[in-house]
Amino acid sequence: MSERVVVIGGTSGIGLAAAEQLLGRGYEVVVAGRDEQRLDSALRQLKDRGVTGRVVDAADEQQLESFFAEVGPFDHLVVTVSVHGGVTSLLDLSAAELRRHSEGKLIPHLLTVRAALGTLRADGSVTLLGAVSSKLSGAGLVALGSTNAAVEQAARVLAAELAPRRVNAVSPGVIDTPWWDWVPEEVRQETLNGACASTALGRPGRPEEVAHAIVYLVENGFTTGVVLPVDGGALLGPVR
């Protein structure tokens, strides 16, 4: 019997790319997201490949409880829930914006892992989604970076707390996904290119490149407590 992977946030971007690659490697995959239209679109893209899908709001404890009860026993959990945008200076930062980051990313990550424990295999894996902003100090990243740092630190803590289950995180750099939909379409590509122009690779990443790292963390049974950068060299600092 093939192993089962649940991908929360698997209806677009990095989560959808991860679901596609996991299916290609023979896993049974359950994708979930809170938007029914995106879920339907994802299932059409992944059709006839051993995938099922459900609508769930990962910030809702009752929905999560019902979701995992319906899914039943599984082997690996991938959480790629995120919140769009968020580059905001401290002077412009509001309490509502801080809550949006926490409620849109940190809280869903932690609530999802907690809800999954009743049916996640005792030596299975959890992979979370941070971002390279957790380690950068650019102006405007105070809320975004702090939220991603919290998710990545949670992966380290939970690797110890939930052992022998493995817990890791990926930390992407600038990736061309719907996360950037807050940027007007006419300047989107220019913005993406500009955001990584000085990095070692000098280009935005692709969702499938981050998905490849997620698959590694799912499959490598001796890797836990790791935050794996997939950032095109962003952490090296400007090199161009």
TrEMBL record:
SUPFAM superfamilies with a match to the protein in the record: NAD(P)-binding Rossmann-fold domains (SSF51735)
Top-level taxonomic group: Bacteria
Keyword annotations of the record: Oxidoreductase
Organism of this sequence: Streptacidiphilus alkalitolerans
Pfam family, one: adh_short_C2
CDD domains: SDR_c (cd05233)
Listed PANTHER family: DIHYDROANTICAPSIN 7-DEHYDROGENASE
Family the UniProt entry places it in: Belongs to the short-chain dehydrogenases/reductases (SDR) family.
Protein name, UniProt field: SDR family oxidoreductase
